[in-house]
Design a protein that fits this description.
The chain is an alpha+beta fold. The chain has helices at residues 11-16, 21-29, 48-55, 62-68, 85-90, 104-107, 119-129, 132-144, 150-157, 162-169, 178-189, 220-223, 226-241, 251-256, 258-270; strands at 8-10, 34-37, 40-42, 58-60, 79-83, 99-101, 194-200, 203-209, 213-218, 245-250. The radius of gyration is 23 Å and the shape is elongated. The chain binds zinc ion. Zinc ion (ZN) is lined by residues 62-63, 80, 100, 102, 125, 129. The site of zinc ion has 7 residues, from α4 and α7.
């Protein structure tokens, strides 16, 4: 059973892989296979999210599938899924509690190859379900790790309307996190020009606005250790002494309170703080 599918497979897939009907029955009796729903089985240790999706008559898709494929996505309180073809034609699965059946499934009929959508199918579902910046952030994440190319993404989404084209035209493979994508797209939407990943005093800063306004985007993973805490303070002190103005935004502030941060950044820009000369 394919591990990348979260340890869940259709009976037909098991038979295709060479298991016999007897072997499947035997494995069920010994608890090596569990029936998830009619025609679907799971291995011990299978991903509970995949089991929940299949149990609900859907497959894992959209941001939940991308997360499994280790692509950056914004956290969601729901499990994002789409309906399998059979269910699509015969019975509509209700939106229940923490499972969201994303729109794409109802708009077009795409076969589900397994219980976890491929990255391509998940991006197509995401285009219908999530805001454009999140799609750009997911694509930035794929590009940054050399898992796809600009032209492959344009081939997949370039003919799918204005939202897709806008998300594609804003991609940048240099971005290393969704926070960077979200913040920089907010700057672009207000025509605030910036440079990303600039080297100053030997440090690489995330975003430089004008000559001297630095905005650092701090995720827990990179900045949550004691050593990082120490390094960040030293770096801020040295940059301030050199005449730079440093602002730090946490992941939470970038994702949930971006407008409040933008108000302050606009205030600094109005005062032309970003344009003052840095006496290097
Ligand atoms: Zn979704």
């Amino acid at each position: 059973m394919p591990i990348e599918a979260g340890g869940v497979a259709r009976r037909s897939e098991l038979l295709r892989q060479g298991l016999t009907v007897n072997e499947i029955d035997q494995a069920r009796r010994h608890g090596e296979l569990q029936r998830v729903r009619w025609g679907w089985y799971s291995l011990p240790g299978a991903d509970p999210a995949v089991i929940r999706a299949v149990k609900a008559g859907t497959v894992l898709s959209c941001v939940s599938s991308l997360k499994r494929h280790d692509v950056w996505t914004r956290d969601s309180q729901h499990l994002h899924t789409r309906q399998t073809e059979y269910r699509q034609r015969h019975k509509r699965v209700r939106y229940r509690n923490d499972i969201k059946v994303c729109m794409a499934a109802e708009r077009e009929s795409r076969p589900c190859a397994g219980p976890v959508d491929s990255i391509r199918d998940a991006l197509l579902t995401m285009l219908e379900c999530r805001p454009g910046w999140e799609l750009t952030a997911a694509m930035d994440s794929l590009l940054n790790r050399n898992r796809t190319t600009h032209s492959e993404l344009w081939d997949l989404l370039g003919h799918r309307g204005g939202k897709a084209v806008k998300a594609l035209s804003q991609m940048d493979e240099r971005r290393e996190s969704g926070s960077e994508t979200r913040f920089q797209l907010a700057l672009e939407s207000e025509q605030i020009s910036y440079q990303m990943q600039v080297r100053l005093l030997g440090y690489r800063v995330d975003t430089l606005i004008g000559r001297r306004l630095i905005v650092e985007l701090d995720g827990w993973s990179a900045h949550g250790t004691r050593k990082a805490f120490e390094n960040d303070r030293e770096r801020d002190r040295r940059l301030a002494a050199a005449g730079f103005h440093v602002i730090r935004l946490t992941h939470q502030q970038t994702m949930e309170q971006l407008e409040a941060a933008m108000v302050d950044i606009r205030t600094l820009i109005r005062r032309r703080e970003h344009l003052r000369r840095v006496p290097l």
